[in-house]
Write a structure and sequence with these properties.
Length: 265
């Protein structure tokens, strides 16, 4: 049985001011279909990454009503902060995935690696981005076409770029990695970074991160967030090289059998 590790949650006073809020209203939410799995409902909670955002029983009842007549077998959330995760545990949810949550300050001249010059960063087709995402993450956690489009619309502006090895002949170029970055007001999000497995650890990811951070800074963003599985040591090391640091708590993807959810109505 997974136990929520509340020791990873820093005291409120230790959190950056842009992560501390007093949320009076319940978060807005949408329910869709989890990519590549029609039996799983995807429950997306707005601003759920904040550490102090919580939910009430009445909100859980709304979700139960929304899925009662559906063919879904389970409900899985977007990544949520520690207070929301704690509340969901009390409503029959379990932790499906745990993510490290990191932030980089874009206003200071942090020393970062020099991007690998053997990669060309440019436009990428949505179909190629989905192909790469499936190769990198597998069907369970990959984006499909609809989820990719939804991610692009999640922020006020977005930036999608692909990585190709530089070659003299354009016809032999193939997109082997991509990055989706979003920005709203003074905050940016490295929403998705994927490289095909055979090309990982060859500089493509670093070149994409460098492009992402430049774009976000040009949009006026002061900080950039990213999350990754706590067991993905390679990704954590890469992000740390580019100036990302933990915000002081983890995010969780939560899941509940629909029958359990409806039974609590």
């Amino acid at each position: 049985m997974f136990r929520l590790d509340t020791t990873t949650v820093s005291p409120r006073a230790a959190l950056p001011s842009f992560l501390v809020t007093n949320v009076a209203d319940q978060p807005s939410w949408t329910i869709g279909v989890w990519p590549f799995d029609a039996t799983t409902a995807m429950l997306t909670l707005q601003s759920a990454h904040r550490p102090d955002l919580t939910i009430t029983r009445s909100l859980v009842e709304e979700w139960a009503d929304a899925t009662a007549a559906s063919a879904f077998q389970r409900v899985r959330t977007s990544a949520v902060g520690p207070t929301t995760a704690e509340a969901l545990l009390g409503h029959g949810f379990v932790v499906r995935q745990e993510l490290d949550f990191l932030v980089a300050d874009l206003t200071i001249g942090t020393r970062t690696p020099r991007p690998d010059s053997s990669w060309r960063i440019g436009r990428v087709r949505a179909a190629d981005a989905v192909r790469i995402d499936v190769a990198a993450f597998g069907d369970e956690w990959a984006l499909d076409g609809a989820a990719f489009e939804h991610s692009c619309r999640a922020t006020q502006s977005f930036h999608v770029r692909g990585a190709q090895r530089k070659a003299r002949l354009p016809l032999v170029r193939k997109t082997l990695g991509f990055c989706l970055t979003g920005a709203s007001d003074d905050t940016s999000y490295l929403q998705r970074l994927a490289v095909v497995p055979a090309t990982q650890r060859q500089g493509a990811a670093g070149a994409l991160i460098a492009d992402s951070m430049r774009w976000a800074a040009d949009q006026g963003a002061q900080r950039m967030f990213v999350n990754t599985d706590i067991n993905n040591a390679a990704a954590l090391s890469l992000y740390q090289q580019w100036g990302f640091e933990s915000v002081g708590y983890h995010l969780r993807v939560m899941e509940c059998d629909r029958a359990t959810l409806v039974g609590r109505r």
